[in-house]
Every structure is written in C-alpha cells, then in structure tokens.
Amino acid sequence: MELRRLSDLSDADLDEAYAVPSRPWLRVNMISSVDGAATGPDGRSGSINNAADKRVFDTLRRLCDAVVVGAGTARDERYREAPKPLVLVSRSGRVPERLRDASPGSVLMATCAGAEFLQETRGLLGEEQVLVLGQYHVDLVGLKHTLAERGFTHVLSEGGPHLLRDLLAEGVADELDWTLVPRLLGGEHPRITSGPPVDVPLRLGSLLEAEGTLLGRWYV
Questions:
Q1: Homologous superfamily (CATH) for 66-152
Q2: Where in the chain is the domain with CATH 3.40.430.10?
Q3: The model scores a pTM over 0.85
Q4: Fewest CB within 10 angstroms: 11, 114, 183, 185, which?
C-alpha cells in the first residue's frame, strides 16, 4: 500500500479518499501520541492535535451527517454546538453545561430508560431529541439503526475511549481513523480505548503522512 503525502491532496482528493463505501456507516476518529497518550498534559485530546489532524478532522466533519460523542468527552473537550447535529451518549442522560442552550434540534441525547437526568434532558432538548435505547445501558446497535432511520446514515464518532471500546465490542464501528502525532508524553494518560478487553482485527485501508504525523484509515 502506498504512503501518500497529505500536502499532495486537494480538499476534493481528501473527500474522495475518505468517502464511505456503503451506508449506514459509522466511523470513529481518534488521535494519540507515539507512546499511546490520547490526551495532552491538560487532559484534552485537542492539546495534541496539529494542522494535519485538523485538516482530516474538518474533512470527516464535513462529510458526515451527524457526530456521535460520549457526553463525558463532550464535557471534557468543551464541545459547542456544531454545524452537524451532535448526538451525545450517556447512561445518566445529563447534557454538558456548554450544550444546554444549543439551538433546538442541534443536540440529541442517546440514553437509557433508567437515566437519572432523563426528564430534565427531555425538557432541555425536546422529547423527540432524546433517544431512549435500553433499560440500564445505551444500546449502540439500536442507536446506529435509529440514526439511520432519521436520515443520519454516515455517522462520525469522536469517542471518547470508553465509547470507542463499546462500539467495537458491540460490532457497531465500521472504521477507525487514527492520527499518530510525532510526540512522546510519558506520564499517565488514557489510550484511545478504555474498559474491558476487546480483540478486534483491523484492515488498513490508507495511510497519509504530513511532517511525521501519520493518518491511517482502518476498516473493522
């Protein structure tokens, strides 16, 4: 497989390189340092990204129909309302503070019937924007189907590590887009997956390079 330079690709080339082969399709985009740290010294993944990662990130955001993210990650990474609908995943059903005043319909919550903040979130987001999927944990297979029924057939997940692990364990993720930045951080940092063990084989589809940063696309 050819290693391609990111700088040689136009935006149209990138759109073609990251086109999905079928629908519904759920891809996950993650980043880490060479020694496996998924966050920087401030505890946020945003502090280890760079221009190459940002360019691919923007491409994936542009191509998708909706963005799925764990509510804890949205809180830690200080998510704001986005051009594409944000679908938060949370067993508690609590909306992060910075998204509580989002425009109607721009934020959805995927949660479970036993969620502590279910009624509060229905009041904040609206009944139709709260997806109750399961009794005590969020049914991620059901989430993918439900989003497809709403027209969100190309879904981008931005983690975090617990959600990525669960998407893999439940066979929901079709693709992993992983950026490896040329940095060593040491210390204690999360990896791109967290939780009980999973063993999921991946097939490398493409690999881009930009000044030492590697941007891979793996199929599950």
A1: Dihydrofolate Reductase, subunit A (3.40.430.10)
A2: 1-65+157-220, 66-152
A3: yes
A4: 11
Fold of 1-65+157-220: Dihydrofolate Reductase, subunit A (3.40.430)
**pLDDT tens-digit readout, 109-148:** 999 999 999 999 999 999 999 999 999 999 999 999 999 9
Q: Which residues sit opposite 155 in a β-bridge?
A: 26, 66
DSSP H helical ranges for the chain: 11-17, 51-63, 71-76, 118-125, 140-149, 161-169
Amino acid at 36: G
Task: Please state, in angstroms and rounded to a whole number, the distance separating the CA atoms of residues 176 and 197.
Answer: 17
pLDDT of 1 higher than 90: no
Tokens of 16: 């073609």
> Rounded to whole angstroms, how far apart are CA atoms 30 and 80?
18
Q: What confidence score (pLDDT) does residue 2 get? A: 80
Strand-pairing partners, residue 156, are: 27, 67
Residue in the block written with tokens 């990138």: 14
